[in-house]
Amino acid sequence: MSSSILVEAKGVTKVYTTGKVEAHALRGVDIEFRVGDFAAIVGPSGSGKTTFLNLVGALDVATDGELRVLGNDISRMTKRQRADLRLNSIGFVFQAYNLVPVLTAQENVEFVLELQGAGEQRSNRAKEVLAQLGLDAYSSRRPNELSGGQQQRVAVARAVAANPKLVLADEPTANLDGENSDILLKMMRDLNEAQGITFIFSTHDPRVVTYARRVVTLVDGRIDNDVTKNSATSSAE
Ligand SMILES: Nc1ncnc2c1ncn2[C@@H]1O[C@H](COP(=O)(O)OP(=O)(O)O)[C@@H](O)[C@H]1O
Ligand SMILES: [Mg+2]
To answer: pTM for the complete prediction?
Structure first.
């Protein structure tokens, strides 16, 4: 496997079994993501977007097929190894922000760095990343003192604070208005362009899709379309 390939899926299937009912969420997905990708996963509700991101993020394991993430064969890893991979190499942004309510923005970023074992420098690093993303004014506020858009920007700061190779975002703008969606996507794209962080995000918002350089469409658990735009910047300026 070339080191520029971050994610390699071959025949990945996922079947959820609830009692006697089976839901075929992914039906044989073959795809690669490379360093520097800024890719949107799109498709109707129930098409398998969240399932796919959960597998790539090592939050869950596939029923069948091969999935390598950052050189690791996910299906052969223990729970503990998957937890370490998530903590140390992958940043996550969720639809519902998921900041710790009792901690300030600064402390939310520091907290993740602390889990990763960062030493004394974590306070400076948290300050640095918040400043870099234009969030210095919010650093001492708790989530309930921030708007949704501000909270999600702090969540992006938290996701990239430890310089992960890969950031996964499942419908990160689902709770944001158009203006805040634009701010968030521009921030993500700047991080992609300036720091080479690879992003894979799901969305069903056409406005958000315009920011992606690569658009992967899932329909009923299969890849229906995979288009990479040739210009480095998208039309959403
Ligand atoms: N934990 C689960 N248990 C059972 N079925 C599930 C579970 N998660 C998702 N599914 C089913 O798998 C399919 C894909 O879901 P999902 O990956 O959430 O799609 P999307 O994110 O595109 O809306 C759907 O039919 C959904 O009902
Ligand atoms: Mg989903």
So the answer is: 0.94
Q: CATH number of the domain at 5-228, out of 3.40.50.300, 3.30.40.10, 3.30.930.10, 3.40.50.2000?
A: 3.40.50.300
* CB 165, CB 89: distance < 8 Å: yes
State pLDDT tens for residues 104-128: 999 999 999 999 888 889 999 999 9
| Average model confidence (pLDDT) across the chain | 94
Q: Does residue 51 have its Cβ closer than 6 Å to ligand 1?
A: yes
**Rounded mean pLDDT, 146-172:** 96
Going from the Cα of 136 to the center of ligand 2, the distance in angstroms, rounded, reads 31
Cβ–ligand 1 contact at 23 (below 6 Å): yes
Q: Is the CB of 25 under 6 A from ligand 1?
A: yes
Distance from residue 181's CA to the centre of ligand 2 (Å)? 17
- C-alpha to C-alpha distance for 67 and 56, rounded to whole angstroms: 8
